[in-house]
Amino acid sequence: MEKKERVKKIMQIFDNDYEDAKCTLDYKNPLQLLISTQLAAQCTDERVNIVTEKLYKKYKNAHDFANADLKELENDIRSTGFFRNKAKNIKETCRILIEKHNGEVPDNLEDLLKLPGVGRKTANVVLGNAFAIPGIVVDTHAKRLSNRIGLSCNTDPEKIEFDLMKIVPKESWTKFSHQLVFHGRSVCKARKPDCKNCNILEYCNFGQSQKENIQ
């Protein structure tokens, strides 16, 4: 079965199993989502949501973050890890937003990628969820599942992104990215995938290789 056909079958199953799959970061506007995604690097969404509950009450817009005392901001986000670099990037990002984008988050990949600490993953999260512009988000779950299922043989996230773009319908890029995350968290876990209870086993290369062990 060709990859496009497999993806079609997988999407039908995912639409049933993870109908409500969505971004698990809490945000009310594009700026909050951008900053939350920056904070989520090497940190769980749950921890980020705990931190930002207070953070977004204290800093309400790009000007507040740009003018924040660096040490104070570092302390505010300390528990997300790598807080010094994250605080520096957030301040510089907001300075650029003010100078070049009237304090607003741009709605295109080119401008987002020019912001400090923003790679393709972060940019696609913002585009897909804040602006409804489809994008494939390759996080650790998407990378792991794409390789295990056999949708991509690459390990570089950008190459995986382009591989998935070729076989997943564009209108489903954002949704499919979320569904990979949900499936990775609940079934296809990093250390021990639960192949026995996997509904896409029939379409998964790794699952098929494990069939004799899970009968």
From TrEMBL:
Q: Tell me the domain of life.
A: Bacteria
**Keywords of this protein's UniProt record, alphabetized?**
4Fe-4S, DNA damage, DNA repair, DNA-binding, Glycosidase, Hydrolase, Iron, Iron-sulfur, Lyase, Metal-binding
EC code: 4.2.99.18
The record, for Gene3D superfamilies, names:
Helix-hairpin-Helix base-excision DNA repair enzymes (C-terminal), Hypothetical protein, domain 2
- Name what cofactor the protein needs: [4Fe-4S] cluster
The HhH-GPD domain extends over 39-186
One Pfam family linked to the record = HhH-GPD
- The top EC class, named as a word, is lyase
Gene Ontology annotations of biological process type:
base-excision repair, AP site formation
Q: Which positions are annotated as binding [4Fe-4S] cluster? A: C188, C195, C198, C204
Reaction equations catalysed: 2'-deoxyribonucleotide-(2'-deoxyribose 5'-phosphate)-2'-deoxyribonucleotide-DNA = a 3'-end 2'-deoxyribonucleotide-(2,3-dehydro-2,3-deoxyribose 5'-phosphate)-DNA + a 5'-end 5'-phospho-2'-deoxyribonucleoside-DNA + H(+)
Q: Which PROSITE patterns does the entry mention?
A: ENDONUCLEASE_III_2 (PS01155)
| Note on cofactor | Binds 1 [4Fe-4S] cluster.
Gene Ontology MF term list: 4 iron, 4 sulfur cluster binding; class I DNA-(apurinic or apyrimidinic site) endonuclease activity; DNA binding; DNA N-glycosylase activity; metal ion binding
Question: Mind telling me which HAMAP family this protein's record contains?
Answer: Nth
Which family is annotated? Belongs to the Nth/MutY family.
Q: What does this protein do?
A: DNA repair enzyme that has both DNA N-glycosylase activity and AP-lyase activity. The DNA N-glycosylase activity releases various damaged pyrimidines from DNA by cleaving the N-glycosidic bond, leaving an AP (apurinic/apyrimidinic) site. The AP-lyase activity cleaves the phosphodiester bond 3' to the AP site by a beta-elimination, leaving a 3'-terminal unsaturated sugar and a product with a terminal 5'-phosphate.
- This one is known as Endonuclease III
Q: Which organism is it from?
A: Acetivibrio saccincola
Q: From which lineage does this chain's organism come?
A: Bacteria, Bacillati, Bacillota, Clostridia, Eubacteriales
